[in-house]
Amino acid sequence: MPRVGRPKTDTEPVTLRLPRQMIETLDDLRRQEKDIPSRPEMIRRILVSHLKIDDEG
């Protein structure tokens, strides 16, 4: 179950607009995951993988 409550204090929100095709591709990737993450979580996972960092930054 996802964590709820206050976000970590060392984070900042990022808002962006994506083309519909990119969102559809993102949703396709999400469906391939066992837990079907939210869009923001999937973007985090992609960034962690691409930037080769751990989940904690």
UniProtKB/TrEMBL annotation:
It comes from the Bacteria. InterPro entries: CopG. Residues 13-48 form the Ribbon-helix-helix protein CopG domain. GO terms for biological process: regulation of DNA-templated transcription. This is Ribbon-helix-helix protein, CopG family. It comes from Szabonella alba.
